[in-house]
Amino acid sequence: MKTILVPVKMVLDSNARPRVRTDESGIDLSGMRMSINPFCEIAVEEALRLKEAGLAEEVVVVSIGPAKAQETLRQALAMGADRATLIEIDETVEPLAVAKLLRAVVGEEQPDLVLLGKQAIDDDCNQTGQMLAALLGWPQATFASAVRFEDGRLLVTREIDAGLQRLSLPLPAVVTTDLRLNEPRHCALPNIMKARKKPLKIGAPADYGVDIGRRLKILAVRPPAGRKSGIRVATASELVGDLRAAGIV
């Protein structure tokens, strides 16, 4: 392989507590800490491991989002990616529009493999990888928990309800990563400094001729209802009695 393309997304840090806007139009991100989507970070790590094994020449990362998403790309570059592209846009982009923009980037970069997280932890859509594969007409493997090469084909182990499924894909292909695929590396300070000098191209959706008009309407975003407090029982028999009274047993 020559190039592995890894799309990454900037999301609200998983340790931060989301705040719903007062008008229920979405999540208020002002002043909140942002970070790389964990599934995307796993995809970057796997791409780097493939490159380090001599199976690829370069790893290119791409993100679609506001100017602040440069920080997310710099994190991927600090991990070891070679160069980055930011398609800058301030508004939220729906999965189909993201897939169309990525298709345009694929046409520009001509990668042999697209590795991306199976979903983003902000919207949990789990759609972009599948849509991109369909738009490209490429084979796909989702929820990858293991990836290796054998006889010029990509062998992917994926987790399904019944256990494990193994797929053999020709290249080029699209693969989405699961949590158990790997453990992403930590970025050392020298690599963080080096990342500042790596190429980062900035463009706009118009540069790729993609219509990003919204097709979905968010009716309301609300925080989950609070849980009722539990009760304590003194004995097991009291617990059984309460369960019977509630009709559970």
From TrEMBL:
Tree of life domain: Bacteria
SUPFAM superfamilies xrefs: Adenine nucleotide alpha hydrolases-like
Cofactor: AMP
Domain Electron transfer flavoprotein alpha/beta-subunit N-terminal span(s) in chain numbering: 24-212
GO molecular function: electron transfer activity
Gene Ontology annotations of biological process type: carboxylic acid catabolic process
Keywords, ordered alphabetically: Electron transport, Transport
Cited Pfam families: ETF
Similarity remark: Belongs to the ETF beta-subunit/FixA family.
Subunit structure: Heterodimer of an alpha and a beta subunit.
Function: The electron transfer flavoprotein serves as a specific electron acceptor for other dehydrogenases. It transfers the electrons to the main respiratory chain via ETF-ubiquinone oxidoreductase (ETF dehydrogenase).
PANTHER family recorded: ELECTRON TRANSFER FLAVOPROTEIN BETA-SUBUNIT, ELECTRON TRANSFER FLAVOPROTEIN SUBUNIT BETA
Name listed for the protein in its UniProt record: Electron transfer flavoprotein subunit beta
Organism: Gluconacetobacter liquefaciens
Record lineage: Bacteria, Pseudomonadati, Pseudomonadota, Alphaproteobacteria, Acetobacterales
